[in-house]
Task: structure prediction
Amino acid sequence: MKKFFTIIFGRVVYTSLFIIIQIGGLALMLRYFAEYFWGFYSISILFSVLAGLHVLNRDMNPDYKLAWLIPIMRFPVFGGLMYAMFGKTRMSQKEARRVLDAEKEYRFALKQEDGAMEELELEDSNAAAHAKYIRAITLIAPQRHTQTMYLPTGEKYFEALKEALEKAQRFIFLEYFIIEQGVMWNEILEILARKVKEGVDIRVMYDDLGCMFTLPQRYTMTLEKLGIKACVFHRFNSILNARFNTRDHRKICVVDGIIGFTGGVNLADEYINVYEKHGHWKDSGIMLTGEAVWSLTVMFLSMWDCVYRDNKTFTGFAPMCDTAEIPDDGYVLPYHDTPMDDEPVGENVYINLIYRAKRYVYITTPYLIVDDKMLAAMRTASRSGVDIRVITPGIPDKKFVNIMTKSYYEPLLNAGVRIFEYTPGFIHSKTLVSDDELAVVGTVNLDYRSFYLHHECAVWLYKSKAVGQVKEDFIETLDKCAEVTLDTMEKKNALQSMARAVLRVFAPLM
Result:
């Protein structure tokens, strides 16, 4: 009975009902006004026309424009209103001031010597062009004196993470899209609670929508009682607005400014296969030790300042040891992508790597819902003789999204791209490796949400040992995959083909 009342009066049920009431009320209001007040109808038409003109003149992805123009023009009474509510990533004036304050500190903290960039340019101008683009947008430069270790499974990530947390002496920063109470998080929390008593500054930040089904509503208070500073990104308040779409999808852990982690792994039990949610869960991450971890530290602190309003300088969290003594392991460049500007860094880094590849590009992604730019890059590279291979899930976590993913198979296969499905279960890893020299490991999926709506992060690598480890993992994973060909693809009837075509049009809004 207690569990029944918990569900009935729980946050998810309350939020869902509140949203349904808002949508229903809005629809009834619009219908009533449109039917009885010709003036309202005329104003709505005018507003939709203005909204359509705004979409046409915005500097945005053409697919995104089309996806909005259709409902705006087809349903002029409320299409413009829907666009005004959900079509634009917006910040309040208060949020904009916080972002501006954090950006000032961010820029100051990232004033680094560009010695590594100059060395990279002398060594390989092609690789330097990749790094220059990332630096131009994010202000983050490539670093030497950083050891890299690719972690090919969630289980290995978990073990490395626990070992690093145990070494903490000054601070631990955790920023994750999903945290869920269970074996994985409970073990981590036990270490954090112990470290707090040792005087370690511990900060935890998680996305509210990502944790809606996994954490109690006021879980930050639970952490604060343990002495852990905690905050929630974009608390879900049930009021319909564009903030729903903007989520913190990053996964970052920083220990003492010298050890850093990122990748696809969230802090929940399915990521380490404590239980099988969608068959075997294949994920990955990367551990950095050295100079490049400072970039992850600054990325975390910048977001923390915006959400927690700490307003402290970042330089106090610089590593205490001499990172210049750490042996070189190629070039390492952590970077981030934000939906608050008009620059899809995550997508452009992938496209840049694909177009500049000479021999091969191997990609793992849980979702393959790409725009025309990405589609053109993969097809052009493949037709130019580059071996393009993509691994997607054999068992999806979201059937609807998987249908859209499969809708992209045929045009890619026709261009010579090879596609493989991970038969044991769900692959959540987000990696790209090219030509035995370049790789990316991070949180960026090949879909519209990652490219245009979410805060994301990743690590760009050149001639680091992790590059070979990413390739080795890809080849080993291929042995557990079934290749998809035009002959083996599920035969579609006319209705299925039409449904997939419609889904492709509205994919940017999903």
